[in-house]
Amino acid sequence: MNDKDYEDFISTVSHELRTPLTSIRGFSQTMLASWDKLDDESKKKFLKIIVEQSNRLINLVENMLSVTKLQNTKENLIYKEVQVKPAVEMITSIVKNQYKDKKFNIEISEKLPPVLADKDKFQQIMTNLTENAAKYSDENSEITVKAHLKQDMVSISVINKGIEIPEKDYEKIFTKFSRIDNPLTRKVQGSGLGLYITKNLVEKMCGTISVKSENNETTFEVNLPAANIERQAREKCSQ
Ligand SMILES: Nc1ncnc2c1ncn2[C@@H]1O[C@H](COP(=O)(O)OP(=O)(O)OP(=O)(O)O)[C@@H](O)[C@H]1O
Ligand SMILES: [Mg+2]
User: Fold this and answer.
1) CA of 195 to the centre of ligand 1 (A)
2) Which residue from 103, 166, 200, 227 could staple onto 81, CB 3.0 to 4.6 Å apart?
3) Which ligand does the CA of 131 lie closest to?
4) Residue 149 backbone phi and psi in degrees, to 5
């Protein structure tokens, strides 16, 4: 990292840390100072904000740790056959819990071969993309996760409806701390690290990631090497 990048990094991080900390402090102070005057409903509301802001801090710290680990090339990935459908089902149900207005469609065949990937990292990739799809989409809209075999790669797409990402920003969104200024992004919190981490992880696992955004629809496509292609082929023959 050069000096300018380092300064940018520090100022962004300080800002990202200060905002939630200020609101956690503010709401706790108010509750302490006015405990007897506040009704239960207000107390509950304040506590909810404190929990939300703490989650935001945890998420930020986790993202920053991931970035540091990415730079440490010694980190070893453990490659295994990972089944896509159960992982996607688990992740979408967790995200759905947080974004209750969204509807998730999963279009993945039982016959899809597994990917050859590090299970934790694969889950991190899918969580980042699914969370983004839920965060940056229209209210009450549908999110689709589908996957198919494309030669020797498993291609997974996460599709959502909402404000498009302009083509000139297709590359930028995968860089550190980049967020696009639009009403949907302004409404939600984020550090701009998710896609940077995601791209790094995908590429470490010999995959590719790309984005396409048009007609109010955004698709993130991840391609990862399919595992046991030969076994699948043999099974097909013997059927
Ligand atoms: N599915 C999407 N639809 C529209 N815009 C998106 C989508 N995913 C990401 N973006 C845009 O790209 C930006 C970068 O995304 P990224 O996941 O890297 O960061 P973030 O979501 O802002 O923060 P973080 O993931 O670190 O909490 C977002 O701020 C948003 O503007
Ligand atoms: Mg994100």
Assistant:
1) 7
2) 227
3) 2
4) -85, 130
Q: Which atom of ligand 1 is nearest to the CA of 220?
A: 1
**Residue 188 Cα: closest atom of ligand 1:** 22
Tell me if 157 CB under 6 Å of ligand 1: no
**Letter string b/e over residues 148-184, b meaning 16 or more CB atoms within 10 A of that residue's CB:** eeeeebbbbbbbbbbbbbeeebeeebbebbebbeeee
User: Are 200 and 71 spatial neighbours (Cβ–Cβ below 8 Å)?
Assistant: no
Q: Distance from the CA of 194 to the center of ligand 1, in angstroms?
A: 7
CA of 174 to the centre of ligand 1 (A): 9
Instruction: Please list the pLDDT of the chain residue by residue as tens digits (239 residues).
Output: 677 777 777 777 887 888 889 999 999 999 999 999 999 999 999 999 999 899 888 988 888 888 888 877 556 789 999 999 999 999 999 999 889 999 999 999 999 999 999 999 999 999 999 999 999 999 999 999 999 999 999 999 999 999 999 999 999 999 988 899 888 888 887 888 999 999 999 999 999 999 999 999 999 999 999 997 666 556 656 54
User: What CA–CA distance (Å, rounded) separates 50 from 28?
Assistant: 8
CA of 75 to the centre of ligand 1 (A): 26
